[in-house]
């Protein structure tokens, strides 16, 4: 990122509740971070930058700081998501050929804690010293919907079995303790499909997740990588999964089986310990570590399609740190990568026959005030400009894993995006 950074003029004002936020975003490239109908959506683009390689998150953080420092910001709302906001999505792997992006919309419309607001952003040189006439963006007409089926990708069932068996052999040899192996599924949307239909279905069926759409990456993630509101830090760790039962009795049995599963408990413990180490290592004065707490035992999180073992982590943002510092420290978590981190990631690059792109990477938003919400990009897909769809789902491999069980686990994880695409 070497281009000269622009000077931005940013104006936020409170508005009456505008109703559904999703309708204010772009039909072909929606920008969204919503949960239970609240959050932020973006429209248009004033500035965009792409990053790559091992320093992609650090480079984005440095550019964002410069952009904020040069901006002229008036924020009459003063709630999380108001003021200058950028949306971002980073690749899972430093070796990925996909772009990690950070972009600033022309408009941001949001709602938080009963306060609704609109932000308008422009290049300072375009408006001189005159004030912006801040207004809501026009609502685009509802476009065409589509129904498609996802088909098998390059990671066939046999290739998946081979990758899992190789992972188990390496675990037995002491190379690593856990690695996450994913598979892909592919499809093709008509290029002019209004992708807000897809986002709307995900939000309706999975209201307890964070519905995200950034730069063509779309999904409904149950896992908050990290959130900062004020100086309060929160993260949610999910590791350990079983499908929901078809009847009440079968569902109760699945819940009990997950709670009692040694394999899933071990997988979950690796993920929580990894997150605690990553967050604690950020602060040399132990400020964050001293206030860091995790759920004493994992709790069972019910989603419409699966049960998850979950733990919530809370703490305080270290002095001088930003949410992008936390994103960099936490990614990739053991829940989507493995343990030890570096060795597991190298094994994933070797064992998976595709580029994960932004799947299982951080996706979210950051504000000039330092707030932000970044999810792990799960239960979703990359949708290219021409409508090509690539969805991913994975599972954690530990010593007691079984290849057939691991393949079966990916089905319910693909279901949210597959069902939404099916309409």
TrEMBL record:
Q: Name one Pfam family in it.
A: Chorismate_bind
Q: Which residues form the Chorismate-utilising enzyme C-terminal domain?
A: 157-413
Q: What is this protein called?
A: Isochorismate synthase
Source organism (scientific name): Gulosibacter macacae
Q: What is the lineage of its organism?
A: Bacteria, Bacillati, Actinomycetota, Actinomycetes, Micrococcales
């Amino acid at each position: 990122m070497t281009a000269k950074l622009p000077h931005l003029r940013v104006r936020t004002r409170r508005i009456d509740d505008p109703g559904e936020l999703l309708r204010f975003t772009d039909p072909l490239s929606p920008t969204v971070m919503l949960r239970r109908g609240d959050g932020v959506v973006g429209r248009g683009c004033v500035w965009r930058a792409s990053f790559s390689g091992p320093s992609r998150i650090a480079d984005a953080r440095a550019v964002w700081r410069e952009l904020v420092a040069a901006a002229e910001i008036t924020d009459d709302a003063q709630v999380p998501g108001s003021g200058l906001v950028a949306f971002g999505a980073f690749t899972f792997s430093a070796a990925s050929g996909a772009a990690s992006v950070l972009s600033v919309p022309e408009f941001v419309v949001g709602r938080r804690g009963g306060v609704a607001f609109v932000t308008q952003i422009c290049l300072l040189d375009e408006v001189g010293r005159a004030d912006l006439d801040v207004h809501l963006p026009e609502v685009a007409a509802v476009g065409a919907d589509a129904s498609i089926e996802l088909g098998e990708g390059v990671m066939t069932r046999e290739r998946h079995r081979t990758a899992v068996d190789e992972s188990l052999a390496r675990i037995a040899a002491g190379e690593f303790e856990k690695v996450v192996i994913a598979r892909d599924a592919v499809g093709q949307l008509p290029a002019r499909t209004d992708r807000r239909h897809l986002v709307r279905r995900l939000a309706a069926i999975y209201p307890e997740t964070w519905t995200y759409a950034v730069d063509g990456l779309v999904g409904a993630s149950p896992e908050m990588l990290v959130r900062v509101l004020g100086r309060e830090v929160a993260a949610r760790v999910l590791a350990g999964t079983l499908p929901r039962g078809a009847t009440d009795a079968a569902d109760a049995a699945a819940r009990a089986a997950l709670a009692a599963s040694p394999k899933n408990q071990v997988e979950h413990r690796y993920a929580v310990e990894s997150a605690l180490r990553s967050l604690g290592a950020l602060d040399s004065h132990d400020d964050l570590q001293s206030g860091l707490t995790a759920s004493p035992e994992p709790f069972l999180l019910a989603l419409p399609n699966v049960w998850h073992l979950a733990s919530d982590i809370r703490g305080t943002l270290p002095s001088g740190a930003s949410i992008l510092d936390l994103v960099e420290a936490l990614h990739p978590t053991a829940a989507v990568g493995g343990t030890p981190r570096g060795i597991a990631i190298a094994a994933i690059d070797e064992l998976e026959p595709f580029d994960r792109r932004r799947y299982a990477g951080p996706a979210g938003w950051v504000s000039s005030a330092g707030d932000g919400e970044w999810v792990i990009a799960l239960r979703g897909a990359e949708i290219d400009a021409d409508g090509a769809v690539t969805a991913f789902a994975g599972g954690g491999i530990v010593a007691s894993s079984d290849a057939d069980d691991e393949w079966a686990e990916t089905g319910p994880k693909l279901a949210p995006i597959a069902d939404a695409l099916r309409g």
